[in-house]
Amino acid sequence: MGITVIFLDENFISAGRVNHYMPSLKVGSIVKVDRFEIARCSSMYKKIDHPFLIRFIPPTIIYEVITGAPEINLQS
Questions:
Q1: How many domains does the structure of the chain reveal?
Q2: Which of 12, 55, 60, 66 sits 20 to 30 Å CA-CA off 43?
């Protein structure tokens, strides 16, 4: 059993779905992401150096699980 932490922003979500999910992504919040797919990342339009990507699909749900979380210094 483990915990995976991913820093999410609008760059992780496809342009066609970003407006749907942006209200769920608040600065400093900790969210849970359910109902997503993992796919191989093609070399075209690759944003990260990882062989897999998270695919946000219509049933994907993002909801806040912790409010008032400690702030992460983005400059570090």
A1: 1
A2: 60
The amino acid occupying position 15 is A
Strands (E), 1-76: 30-34, 37-40, 52-55, 61-66
Q: Which domain holds residue 56?
A: 10-66
Query: Do 33 and 54 form a contact (C-beta atoms < 8 A)?
Result: yes
pLDDT in tens, the chain (76 residues): 666 677 776 677 777 888 888 888 777 777 888 898 888 877 666 566 677 778 888 898 988 887 666 666 767 5
Residue 76 domain-assigned (yes or no): no
